[in-house]
Amino acid sequence: MKINPKTFEGFNRVLTGVVVPRPIAFVSTISNSGNVNLSPYSFFNAVSYDPPLIIFSSSKFTSDGKLKDSLSNIEQNGEFVVNIVNENIVEAMNKTAAEYPEDVNEFDVANLTQIDSDLVKPPRLSESPVNMECKLERIITLGTEAHPQGLVIGEIIQLHIDDEIISGHRINHEKLKPVGRLAGNMYTHTYDVFELMRPSYEG
Ligand SMILES: Cc1cc2nc3c(=O)[nH]c(=O)nc-3n(C[C@H](O)[C@H](O)[C@H](O)COP(=O)(O)O)c2cc1C
Questions:
Q1: 162 partner at 20 to 30 Å CA-CA among 55, 145, 171, 173?
Q2: Atom 13, ligand 1: residue with shortest CA distance
Q3: CATH number, domain containing residue 60
Q4: Please, which pLDDT band fits residue 31 given cuts at 50, 70 and 90?
Q5: Is 197 inside any structural domain?
Q6: Does residue 24 have its Cβ closer than 6 Å to ligand 1?
Q7: pLDDT digits (tens, 9 = 90+) for 137-192
Q8: Is residue 38 part of a domain?
Q9: Secondary structure (H, E, C), the chain
Q10: What's the domain range around 72?
């Protein structure tokens, strides 16, 4: 089967079904008037070492046409925290994903604990094993008028990691217990791990 994205109804579901598993950024932000927000984004990845940059991409609008809070808050003050989602907090993460009004704090909705960040105003998530304090590098607007998307590029300026899961530079993934997103409401663990030595070319 060949699929032309322009003519295939609902191509977004095919796309997010084949680009899997996707890591999940659990993004905390705060508006200039002090509303705290916490929401998951699986259009997420690390894209540069120096400076250390991460990206996530948000639809501009919710299904009822309101600006998404995370994007709006980052546009206001250029700060956010990416908290890594592991299996201990995946159900709480899911609770935060409804389109709550902007004055609803999803930390409260999901019974999660916010703690102060060191260098940015948005709080970090205590229950997450990794928190990345980020300053906005830039937002790139993508998409069409009907489906505008904000690609947020952020520089990590401070990273917090649970001592239990790091040794030197090595991350213990059995302890990190990351969760990936598959299509729709499906997720995956990372229990079935294997090693593959990379070849070197000696031409
Ligand atoms: C696991 C998961 C991943 C998600 N990834 C994205 C994403 O990459 N981009 C997006 O726009 N919405 C994504 N959503 C939906 C948002 O989390 C949802 O619209 C949320 O209400 C946005 O909140 P905000 O308006 O408070 O920022 C995802 C939802 C879940 C459960």
A1: 55
A2: 41
A3: 2.30.110.10
A4: very high
A5: no
A6: yes
A7: 999 999 998 899 999 999 999 999 999 999 999 999 999 999 999 999 999 999 99
A8: yes
A9: CCCCCCCCCCHHHHHHHHCCCECCEEEEEECCCCCEEEEEECCEEEEECCCCEEEEEEECECCCCCECHHHHHHHHHCEEEEEECECCCHHHHHHCCCCCCCCCCHHHHCCCCEECCCCCCCCEECCCCEEEEEEEEEEEEEECCCCEEEEEEEEEEEEEECHHHEECCEECHHHHCECEECCCCCEECCCCCCCCCCCCCCC
A10: 11-162+173-188
Position 168 in a domain: no
Tokens 């980020």: give the residue: 134
Q: How far apart are CA 136 and CA 134, in angstroms?
A: 6
> How many structural domains are present in the chain?
1
42 C-beta closer than 6 A to ligand 1: yes
Cα(32) to centroid(ligand 1), Å: 21
**Residue 6 maps to a domain:** no
Q: Is the CB of 39 under 6 A from ligand 1?
A: yes
pTM: 0.97
Task: Give the nearest ligand 1 atom to 102 CA.
Answer: 26
